């Protein structure tokens, strides 16, 4: 009986692979360095090695495994199983699904980090029991994923929910993507740090000046300590994050918006501000019917999400 | 054999009811005044009367009919079959589906104008053969509907795709909904007319001054004739419409964006500007893979959409 799935969280630094029950209970987890510099074949073989490794450790065989899910940085093509390109991995237009499928003769599914996180939250995290969920991740960049009627929605070219690149201020700061005023250019950790550095480069009075290097961490810290410039920067970034969430509420009419990523470590301050903006900008019944909550999965979110991907996708094919 | 469906386009002025084949070929169409002032029961009875009327005219009976679709202004609750409220119809939290279902013993489906138009375009209009379509309607207001993986997506409270109320300029003009800088407040026909009237109320030199009343029609006309103020107003509104469409592309990664509604009568000028903004603001592969086209259904879009709703929803239950 196929009682397990395997999830692989493929990162630029490490590969984390878990054997899990169909209910998401992790039986064994193996973490090894990616060694991305060794190239495509080596990294693929390391991924395969972790699969063999968790099976051995759990005293299981490939015949016990229903499906394998892989979460990877994008852009990638989930339908074709191809990683198109990503800064910290050696894969270029590389099919990572087929070799693993060939090796184990098990269905293998690939999706990007944000979608995998959304699926993880939907199946085992803050969104358990909900059918329509928008997931935001706010860290160095801003990304997202969406569960609609109980399924991940990927779009035509597997690029849906490029929510970090919706325009919220047509004349706002330049984004890394080239556009002006993207959510990511206004609300990401990188953006917050950048606004802090810009402030230091002027004559404005700010306690940020004492740092050699200003990142979002220092800006949040000094805002907490009462520095007016830092408080302005944080408030501005959270206001735009609130507008981004409000736009997602107007578009998806979801039951829940889940926000994860490093920037959410500031906690209530972020969620309170986002809720305030959503209440101000959205239709009352839509705002009231939508919960806005922190991600529920912690440090293992990546591998739990990959497990959830395997369960969700293999369930579809049953 | 159930070879027909019936579509009802319920409007504040008229009720248009059509008997159609399952392929969307309209056999008979009856149009009568709504007489909204006569109240809920009277209007419901008039709707029922049109159903009986098309059946008699087509020499058919209710046993020939697979399903009935109703398109109505919103807000409404498709799941419950309830029209919540609408300015030009007498219904207040009124179930319009149940009495018709009871009368004919046929499945009856209700949806809002924008969703019905999206379904119509998907099944019989510009979006035929596509699976992921975002539909915008730009007239006095801005609304929308979305087809995802071949199905209409309605959201948690049946209010998905309130695309007219996404914020595109946090400090922009006040929208009727109360929010600042909504797409509708920037790009609707009403907004364009308002900017024209505002211009006339100042000392700026503009040929709009010759009109007693300025609506979007006069602004488009004078822009065409070379009036700089009108040209600015039009360009600004179409730029924001382009940003709204670009945001929908970033979020849905659709195969096609269809734009309908009165404002699209200006034609190429609108579509060229929208495409230009999408190309500028979206990721290249997403912009290139998404067609942006005018609505394909003409004057009968409402009733064709209602027919399409009946076909789509009854097909789901087969």
Task: Explain what the structure shows.
The structure is a homodimer of 318-residue chains. With 318 residues, chain A is an alpha/beta fold. Chain A has two domains: 4-113 and 299-316, ATPase, nucleotide binding domain (Nucleotidyltransferase, domain 5); 126-294, Nucleotidyltransferase, domain 5 (2-Layer Sandwich). In chain A, 39% of the residues lie in helices and 21% in strands. The first copy, chain A, is built from ten helices and 13 strands. Chain A has helices spanning 40-57, 97-104, 113-124, 183-187, 189-200, 216-224, 228-252, 268-281, 284-288, 301-316; strands at 4-10, 14-21, 26-33, 65-72, 76-77, 82-83, 94-95, 108-112, 133-138, 142-148, 151-152, 256-260, 291-294. In chain A, the strands form three sheets. Chain A has a five-stranded mixed beta sheet with strand order 3-2-1-4-8. In chain A, helix 3 (113-124) crosses helix 10, helix 5 (189-200) packs across helix 6 and helix 5 (189-200) packs antiparallel against helix 7 (228-252). Chain A starts with a strand and ends with a helix. The model of chain A has no long low-confidence stretch (mean pLDDT 96). Chains A and B meet through helix 7 of A and helix 7 of B. Chains A, B: InterPro entries: ATPase_NBD (IPR043129), ROK (IPR000600). Chains A, B: Keywords: Kinase, Transferase. Chains A, B: This is Glucokinase. Chains A, B: Its EC number is 2.7.1.2.
- CATH classification class of the largest domain in chain A: Alpha Beta
The number of helical runs of chain A is: 10
Chain pair with largest interface: A-B, 43 and 43 residues
Strand percent estimate of chain A: 15-25%
Q: What integer value in Å does the Rg of chain A equal?
A: 21 Å
């Amino acid at each position: 009986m196929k009682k397990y799935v395997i999830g692989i969280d493929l990162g630029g630094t490490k590969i984390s692979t878990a054997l899990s029950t169909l209910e998401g209970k992790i039986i064994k987890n193996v973490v090894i360095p990616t060694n991305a510099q060794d190239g495509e074949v080596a990294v693929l073989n390391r991924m395969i090695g972790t699969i063999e490794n968790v099976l051995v450790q759990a005293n299981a065989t490939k015949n016990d495994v229903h499906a394998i899910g892989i979460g990877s940085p994008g852009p990638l093509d989930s339908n074709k199983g191809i990683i198109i390109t990503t800064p910290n991995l050696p894969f270029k237009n590389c099919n990572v699904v087929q070799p693993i499928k060939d090796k184990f003769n098990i269905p293998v599914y690939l999706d990007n980090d944000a979608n995998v996180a959304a699926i993880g939250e939907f199946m085992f995290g803050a969104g358990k029991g909900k059918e329509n969920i928008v997931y935001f991740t706010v860290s160095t960049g801003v990304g997202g994923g969406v569960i609609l009627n109980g399924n991940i929605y990927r779009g035509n070219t597997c690029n849906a929910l490029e929510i970090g690149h919706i325009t919220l201020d047509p004349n706002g700061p330049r984004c890394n993507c080239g556009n002006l005023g993207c959510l990511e250019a206004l609300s990401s950790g990188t953006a917050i740090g950048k606004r802090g550095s810009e402030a230091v480069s002027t004559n404005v009075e700010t306690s940020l000046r004492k740092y050699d290097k200003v990142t979002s961490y220092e800006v949040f810290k000094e805002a907490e300590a009462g520095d007016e410039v830092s408080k302005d920067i944080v408030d501005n970034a959270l206001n735009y994050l609130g507008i981004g969430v409000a736009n997602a509420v107007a578009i998806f009419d979801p039951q829940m918006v889940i926000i994860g990523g490093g920037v959410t470590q500031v906690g209530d301050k972020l969620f309170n501000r986002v809720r305030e903006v959503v209440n101000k900008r959205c239709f009352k019944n839509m705002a009231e019917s939508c919960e806005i909550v922190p991600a529920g999965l912690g440090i293992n979110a990546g591998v739990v999400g990959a497990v959830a991907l395997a369960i969700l996708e293999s369930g579809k094919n049953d």
